[in-house]
Amino acid sequence: MPAFVIISGCSGGGKSTLLTELCRRGFAVVEEPGRRIVASEQRFGGSALPWIDPAAFARRAVAMGRKDCDKASGQEGIVFFDRGLIDAAAALEFATGEACLRHAIGLQRVHRRVFMAPPWPEIFVGDDERRHDLVTARAEYERLVDAYSELGYELDTLPKISVGARADHLIAALAGDGLL
């Protein structure tokens, strides 16, 4: 059975870049649901976009997160997730007020340590898929810290260092946890 490890945190905080490095090092990775949804919605003229219909976007992210977990269950070793089901459930709670975090934890079995990419203004960049500003990204980060903390996860704030050194930090932490 694989060990699911979440890399969460601030939008624009270097998560995807870190996942690319981990993939380069031979680890299995699952891309962020949000970016995949935005690309699909933009390609096909859909409205399940965080700046148009945040609730529909979050519901799609929850559904995609479930599918990602099911698909990754067939992997061996560690599988790194760029965000995941809990992030999507936190977004859905924020958009709708529906209490769904506790339900999400039962659907995604993840390692107790969650790596959080903190706000990092020096690398934050908006684009066609990330239209919000750093203030909004910071607020999202605080909601995610609260959500993971409330669910009892151990948060490991990633240092603001090179991507290679960040990957080394993460791997060393997981080795200390007995996963490597």
Summarize the structure in words.
It is a single chain. This protein has helices at 15-24, 33-44, 54-72, 85-96, 101-107, 134-150, 163-176, and strands spanning 3-9, 28-30, 78-82, 113-117, 154-157. It has 180 residues and is an alpha/beta fold. Helices cover 51% and strands 13% of the residues. The model has no long low-confidence stretch (mean pLDDT 86). It contains seven helices and five strands; from the N terminus they run E-H-E-H-H-E-H-H-E-H-E-H. A five-stranded parallel beta sheet has the order 2-3-1-4-5, sandwiched between helices. It has a single domain, classed as Rossmann fold, CATH 3.40.50.300. Helix 6 links the parallel strand 4 (113-117) and strand 5. The longest helix is centred in the middle third of the chain and has 19 residues, at 54-72. This is AAA family ATPase. It comes from Jiella flava. Residues 5-166 form the NadR/Ttd14 AAA domain.
Could you give the distance between the termini?
Answer: 14 Å
Integer-rounded radius of gyration:
15 Å
- For this structure, what is the CATH homologous superfamily? P-loop containing nucleotide triphosphate hydrolases
Share in helix:
40-55%
- The CATH class name reads Alpha Beta
- Note the run of SSEs as H and E: EHEHHEHHEHEH
What is the number of beta strands? 5
Q: What general outline do the C-alpha atoms trace?
A: globular
The CATH architecture can be given as 3-Layer(aba) Sandwich
Structural class: alpha/beta
Domain count: 1
Reported for the largest beta sheet, the result is: 5 strands, parallel
Brief descriptors of the model:
180 residues, alpha/beta, 7 helices, globular
